[in-house]
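Annex B, item 7. Sequence and structure tokens for protein A, then protein B.
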Amino acid sequence: MGEAPRVQGGLQAEIMTVLWRIGAGTVEQVRGGLPEGSGSAYTTVQTVLNRLAERGLVVRTRERNVIVYQPAMSEAEYVDSALAATLDSASKSARRLALARLVGRMGAGELDELRELARGLDKGEPGPA
């Protein structure tokens, strides 16, 4: 998979989080899933969704008389792409230090899960989305 366009700004991130959680939705469904008190108007959410679609992060489909939006990739695929792009642009020492810090913040249970996931990926298993 190539590098995914980056989410830009807080509202785009919140909208993508909602879409990853609900899978697909109309403007009103996405708006309803935003954090309490975000106060984003219908037209603002619609504009952001359309911009995300133009950039390839969201897919639009017409279902009868409404537009339904869904993520173009899973959250895991997006994070993988963003991390890979960031790490690829870093020096070897910076890359190792960043990865060591990420792993260092994990609890023992998470590390065991990560090892198991890595073994599965080595065997060609797809892993969770």
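Protein B:
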Amino acid sequence: MPSLTRPLHADSRKSVVDSWLEQTIPKGMISLEGSSILPTTELPDDGMSLRDDASTSASSMIIPGSTSTGTSERLITSSPLFRSTLKMNGVHIDNFGTKTPKDIEELVTKHIRRKRDSPRLGSEERDEITSKIADSWDKPEPMVSDISSCLFPVDLKKVSQGGDTLWSTQPLPRNPEYPHGLVTPKTDRHYGFHTALKSSWSPTELAAASHPSVRPYSQPTNDNLFSLFLLEVKSEATGGTLYAAESQLAGSGAHRVQSMR
């Protein structure tokens, strides 16, 4: 039986891709001023929380600091090459604050670094925190992350806590000309506004935040709306490093910034 399909000419393929992009990506969602880096539109394809990675032709081409299944090669956040992945996807870690824009620096100084007179902990509270840290000192990451709950008490009437769940992928910046995408965020702890069941927002506000086209940006998980405060905890017992935590949070932060844009 003759084939019912035939290869598309290059111009036709370009036309199909352009048409798909116009229908899939809302106008105004191109990020990073003038660059070609776009928010992604695909969902996670597996439970490994890694996506959009290049495949190699042979296992001998596997890069140190990566994982491999068959012929596919995936960078991990602890790899020395992962910072290149961040940069090539438009995410920069400014360790020394030398490239921070003036308006951002003023915002950080005014709201984040301002002096706060926190109440001192009572002896019972100190003992409870010390006990939790001691119990978790040699434990793996999921148990170590429990410490954050008592170190960062929150008013649960206004804020919802979530964590350890794969986020949506649509807001992640992606450079289509670079072979590696960012790791799908799975932040240990994140805080945001209550979802519809506990929220005091108006029906109109909740309807807007819960609209199917908005939800990947407003609600990366089912835990809360507009996650704003993110924590990544690492355990020395399982080889966790500050480098890997920073790399993970850089991706999570880019996710939230792109979502707000």
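Comment on protein B: Residues 121-153 form one domain.
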